[in-house]
Known about the structure:
heterodimer; A: about 400 residues; alpha/beta; Rossmann fold; 5-stranded parallel beta sheet; two-stranded antiparallel ribbon; 15 helices; B: about 325 residues; 2 domains; 5-stranded mixed beta sheet; 14 strands; globular
Amino acid sequence: xxxxxxxxxxxxxxxxxxxxxxxxxxxxxxxxxxxxxxxxxxxxxxxxxxxxxxxxxxxxxxxxxxxxxxxxxxxxxxxxxxxxxxxxxxxxxxxxxxxxxxxxxxxxxxxxxxxxxxxxxxxxxxxxxxxxxxxxxxxxxxxxxxxxxxxxxxxxxxxxxxxxxxxxxxxxxxxxxxxxxxxxxxxxxxxxxxxxxxxxxxxxxxxxxxxxxxxxxxxxxxxxxxxxxxxxxxxxxxxxxxxxxxxxxxxxxxxxxxxxxxxxxxxxxxxxxxxxxxxxxxxxxxxxxxxxxxxxxxxxxxxxxxxxxxxxxxxxxxxxxxxxxxxxxxxxxxxxxxxxxxxxxxxxxxxxxxxxxxxxxxxxxxxxxxxxxxxxxxxxxxxxxxxxxxxxx
Amino acid sequence: xxxxxxxxxxxxxxxxxxxxxxxxxxxxxxxxxxxxxxxxxxxxxxxxxxxxxxxxxxxxxxxxxxxxxxxxxxxxxxxxxxxxxxxxxxxxxxxxxxxxxxxxxxxxxxxxxxxxxxxxxxxxxxxxxxxxxxxxxxxxxxxxxxxxxxxxxxxxxxxxxxxxxxxxxxxxxxxxxxxxxxxxxxxxxxxxxxxxxxxxxxxxxxxxxxxxxxxxxxxxxxxxxxxxxxxxxxxxxxxxxxxxxxxxxxxxxxxxxxxxxxxxxxxxxxxxxxxxxxxxxxxxxxxxxxxxxxxxxxxxxxxxxxxxxxxxxxxxxxxxxxxxxxxxxx
Lengths: 393, 330
């Protein structure tokens, strides 16, 4: 079965004019929930058709909770950086819908290769957000076990993980977990990256490898309009999703601030991959409301007007409006989520400060699976040197 | 236990046999690279393997080295043991970021949870009359990188065993093959023998006057030099280092304590090359045993030259003997 909406449409690429890559998203943007919180239909993608009213309400409430808690993780970590508890933090403010939509579309057997900003996807995959902080505090370089949640370690070199994702998907093909027709067995990989990474050789090579081997991987690009200070126009002269066609697989642009659409599109793309129909590029069109990281100063390169306009498209506010307008959640629900966010904040604040510094000698551990005699010698020498200060003042 | 069979094989054939054995022993071993399938690789090292193991296990890749190594990382994370072929030494650099930033660091980053058992095979060294980028010796760049292990085979017997040991190792191994030797000499291979551990050096010729350290293509040069020196009454001890990271200094230091004089020979540029590290370690460990400074004979600090002058540029028998003379005259 071919999922509608992914078929290459030459008219989109060679049409009368390139659509603007700035604020106006164009007709091809998949949207199922407007910024005002109103449901809209899309010819190719839908949300909730297979759910009862109660199930639909429960699912949307779940998205609201996920996004609210994800934002709390981000706000709390940003504050922790300001208090000197983290060295740096990569904010996701504004990208909650793209990440939660993509994260909730995953099945347990699917595998995620994140950048360093996928805190919302980590949340959906069940990674304790406290473990995300270790990297940014400087106590480790990735404190969770990728095998436990099928959630890879954060990758800081831009785009490098898209090749890992493709190779992992090639491994799935060899394991016979693609296209078997068994929904509990068939699996796929999702590779996260951003608009800046789309310029990297590794991302383009991963497209080529994935296409060549028809690998079950979804390339999920959060186009948040900014690569630190460089606007999307510096990376691409055509909408990013249209690049997929040149590599021989479909691409689709989704409203990245619409969790329903992000979920629906990613779910369909993952299903395509699991069925053995190969890769898809999903461009989640969104906006980085915060700075690139806490070391960045966006006022030097972008207008506050833009930020203000994107505030009107807030991913959480529109879901809240939708839930309230349709009586899908009562005040008790919103209060409970607020309380949960408070607890999560407390967990992160107290947990972060309690994260132990690594022991200096631990740097020698795990350089190799089998430590070399050379490192044993260096470690022992360093240990003796450190011991020589014991008792000294 | 299998019956003892010996046959005379080239390095190319021995590597081919070693890869085949590793694939038979472990279904998780995959080969990937440019032209490794139907063609059997440009040097025919993977000859016939795709036919016997199928396209899923011997994978012709798109022409993108970073893609080859980067996807190998993903396959290793999925539980496979990828053996990738970089077609020529000078083509490894597009994959340098993946090797240095990802392959080398994944075990450390994950605190040992996701080690990467990847072998990166690189035909290295010159002497084949090739065009630019086909004759280089990048070993020091990888030996300088924590998280990688780097070995170089010099002969068919080692080729057969070392490639299997590298594949079985839990850590990433950069596996250097002296391409000039691929089809040069044959050796009697006994596949029931017990090989030396992978990360060990070996004295390949005993001697008393000067220690010559070599690896890969220069082992043969050093052995020829030892023979020539022997005719003049000078006794050279030749050590095939085999492992460049980690270095196995035991046999080296033992030899230097005996001879007091060392010549290191490699094709790579001498500046910050393996010879520099060896000289430093020998000086630290054997200072009072040394009768002369450690001398290095290698490629000059120039780009690899046009093929018509490569034989002059490469450290040949005469330049090794010249260094032997200088260390004895010191």
